[in-house]
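Appendix B. Raw example, untouched.
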Amino acid sequence: MTLGVFKQGKASCVIFFHPGEEGTYVENVDVTLYENGFVHLQSSTEETTVHLRNIEIIWQFKKEAESKTGSFRLLRLKGSDKPAGP
């Protein structure tokens, strides 16, 4: 069984949420989001794997040269009518 990659890219910041504690964060992170909800994170200071429900990813978006307006896309989990996230 192979594990599919849902999205891979650079994030400007990843925020970690730990129950009962304040959130911590890492900047300039290479992110690989797998179809099963696990996320592999690698920065210049650390490398870890966590579940998507315990973090918030702020992706780096590159604006297309021809596009004058920004775009925003909501991701939906398979079999769900609600957008992913908090």
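End of appendix B.
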